[in-house]
Design a protein that fits this description.
By secondary structure, the chain is of the alpha/beta class. About 45% of the residues lie in helices and about 15% in strands. The strands form two sheets. The chain has an eight-stranded mixed beta sheet. Strands 9-10 form a two-stranded antiparallel sheet.
Length: about 290
């Protein structure tokens, strides 16, 4: 396998998780953010996660030190120029991603493979900002990245078959099950998950059940780890709203249309757990209380 050094752009929730699993899997990993404060915050989160894994006996103190030793934070994009693979996990906006990859394309040798962790944008459209669409894939991870066992490996019509297979192997090296998906908006998971989450909001709007009863139904009736409204708060209502708009624009199907309640909650800033309020109030994070509408 040719991948030795991995660059990650973005050290937020997803980027820091990707950097953690990459370093833990033995790859020299450089993670880049726009300011030293954001780099420090992301790396501190990874250190906390690793310390928790040692406390629980999941990894040894030696493995913790080795993982940390393979990980480096930076604010300079140039520090990624000798990476074999660069995974992008920045803001979910097409112009920002295209601008980043154009800069990376000029910086990196032609051999470097590029990947985007986008959840709903088209890989083809991002890769068209570079001169290497044949060395461009989607690597879509799930939150929390160190825990969730899946990565969707996405190929476009331009992706080279060998590069694609190398990325499937890379996903497996990270300890994930790598599923193969075509570059269709939402790939596999969000194609199925987004209509389900939106339907849960529609069920609430129509008075089919209360917040707790809708969540308990899917948790206890179907064995899901979280009910759909809790999961919406976890993923972020703003994120889900944004994804649904992209998917609706692509497919023009009602199942991807945002319910009015979702739009209103996002307008009100009730974006879920990170905002302290969504379908639940997180004033006491250990005991979220269902909101009354
Ligand atoms: N980072 C690292 N580890 C974490 C973590 C985090 N943020 N949150 C939880 N964990 C670990 C815990 O340490 C614990 O590890 P252990 O089993 O070794 O002790 C394990 O996960 C379970 O955590 P808890 O016991 O605290 O809590 P739960 O049992 O409730 O599990 C959960 C938490 C893993 C988040 C679980 O509720 C779950 O799987 N929820 C569904 C998550 C999901 O569906 N994610 C995908 C969202 S969709 C997406 O990301 C795609 C995007 O495009 C929208």
């Amino acid at each position: 396998m040719a991948i030795r050094k991995v660059g990650v752009v973005g050290c937020g929730l997803m980027g820091s998780g990707i950097a953690q699993v990459s370093a833990a899997a033995g790859f020299a990993t450089v993670v880049r953010e726009v300011s030293p404060a954001i780099v420090e915050k992301g790396i501190a989160g990874i250190e906390k996660n690793l310390a928790r894994l040692v406390e629980k006996g999941t990894i040894t103190a030696g493995a913790q030190a080795e993982t940390r030793g393979r990980l480096r934070g930076t604010t300079a994009l140039e520090d990624l120029k000798d990476c074999d693979l660069i995974v992008e996990a920045i803001i979910e906006q097409l112009p920002a991603k295209r601008e980043l990859f154009t800069a990376l394309d000029a910086l990196c040798p032609p051999s470097t493979i590029f990947a985007s962790n986008t959840s709903s944008l088209t890989i083809t459209e991002i890769s068209a900002a570079t001169k290497r669409p044949q060395r461009f894939v989607g690597l879509h991870f799930f939150n929390p990245v160190p825990v969730m066992k899946l990565v969707e490996v996405v190929r476009t019509i331009a992706t080279d078959a060998d590069v694609y297979e190398e990325m499937v192997v890379f996903g497996t090296r990270l300890g994930k099950t790598a599923v193969r998906a075509h570059d269709s908006t939402g790939f596999i998971v969000n194609r199925l998950l987004v209509p389900y989450l939106l339907d849960a909001i529609r069920a609430l709007e129509e008075g089919v059940g209360s917040i707790e009863d809708i969540d308990n139904s899917m948790k206890l009736g179907c064995g899901h780890p979280m009910g759909p409204l809790t999961l919406l708060d976890f993923v972020g209502l703003d994120t889900t709203y944004y994804i649904s708009q992209i998917m609706f624009e692509e497919f023009h199907e009602k199942r991807f249309a945002s319910p009015p309640l979702l739009k209103r909650m996002v307008l009100a800033g009730w974006n879920g757990r990170k905002a302290g309020r969504g379908f639940y109030d997180y004033a006491d994070a250990a005991k979220p209380k269902a909101m009354k509408f």
